[in-house]
C-alpha cells in the first residue's frame, strides 16, 4: 500500500469538489483530489445542463403549437424524437468534456482514483491501495438518485434522470413518480414533446414550494396541461413485457390502470456519505448519515473535516455548491484557523413553464403573525397578457415592524429573472419602501412584481 501525506484531501471532483480544490490550492496548500467515478460534474452529465437542453426543445415545440393564437400559421407541428435526443446528448457531451478538461489540467501526482474511506479523522484509505494522511479533508462526494425496491422490480423500465439523457429517441409514454424539481421539469418537457405523461406525487406538494396559495396555483396551472396528481394513490406497479402497468385511483376515486413505456423515478436523491466510514471519526451524524456541520464555515464539529455540495443538507444547487466548496477549501487549507465565509441569499428556481421561484425565507420559515404578505396574480398583468403567459401568482413576505423584505415564493412568467432581482433585494436587506423607489420600465413583467410590493405596502400601513 502506498502511503502519502497532504495538507488537504478533497474527496469528489464535482462542482463543489473542484471549487474546494482550487480554493485550497490558491491558499498554497498541498492538495490531493480523490474521485471514484468518471470525471465531469453531476450538473453537466445528468443535471442542470442536459435537462435544460430537453426543456429548450420542449419550449420550441410549445411555441410552435401556440403560434396560432397570435395569428401565426405554422401548420402541423412534428417532433423528431431522434433529432431532439441527438442534440441533447451532443451538447451534454460537450459540457461534460469542458468539465473533464479542467480535471485533466491537474497533474497526475495530485489525483488519486478510487473510493475513499476514513481510517481515522485525518487518514483516508483509497480502495486499499493508497493511504493518505492529511491535515484536513473536504467531503464533496455528491448524491445519487433514490430507487426504492418496488421500482427496482420493474427492471430497465424504471429509469432516473441519470438514464433519460442517454435515450436515442423519445418514448411514447412515461409515468413520472415525484413532483419535485426533477419530476416537474422533465415531466412537463416530455409532455410538450409529445410524450404521454402522467405525474404521481405525494402530500400535495409540487417543486420546493411551501406556500399553500402558490402550491394551489401551480397545481391548477400544470394540472390543466397534463395528467397530474400531487397526492396520488398508487395501488400497483407491474412489469408487462417492455412496459409497465400502473393501477391507481384518480382524484375522483375511480380505480384505473394505464400502461407506460417507462417509469421515471424522481422522488429525490441521497447523499453519498454511507461508504465514507464516518463512523471511524468522532463526527456527529444525522438520520441520513450527514455529519453535523456549521454552514458558515462548512466544518464538521471541531474536526479537520469539511463538507460541501450535496454532502450537506442545503439545497443541491450549483451556485451554492461553488460557494460551499470555496469556503470548505479555504478553511481546510487554513485549518485550524477557520473563519465564516460568504453565504448568499437563498435562491431556487424550477425551470418549468411558468417557472417556480423561492427566494430568501420560505413561507414555512416565516412567522405569519410577524409578516405581511403582498401578492399579485398574473392573470391580467399587462406584459404577461401580451405574451399569452398570463398565469401565476407571486407572494412576497415583509417584516411587519421594519418593512424589511424577507423572501418570496411564486409561479410566474420570467421567474428565473424575477427571482434574481428578489434575491438581490433580500441580500441587500432592502425594505418594501426602498424597493418601491426603484425604477420599473413599461411594459414589463417586473411591473407585476412592483404590484406585489405595493400590496405589501398597503398592508404595512394598515
Automatic annotation (TrEMBL):
Domain of life of the organism encoding this protein: Bacteria
Co-factor requirement: FAD
Enzyme class: oxidoreductase
UniProt cross-references to InterPro entries, sorted A to Z: FAD/NAD-bd_sf, FAD/NAD-binding_dom, FAD/NAD-linked_Rdtase_dimer_sf, Mn/Fe_SOD_N_sf, Pyr_nuc-diS_OxRdtase, Pyr_nucl-diS_OxRdtase_dimer
Keyword Transcription regulation: no
Keyword Oxidoreductase set for record: yes
Family indicated by similarity: Belongs to the class-I pyridine nucleotide-disulfide oxidoreductase family.
Name of the protein this chain belongs to: Dihydrolipoamide dehydrogenase
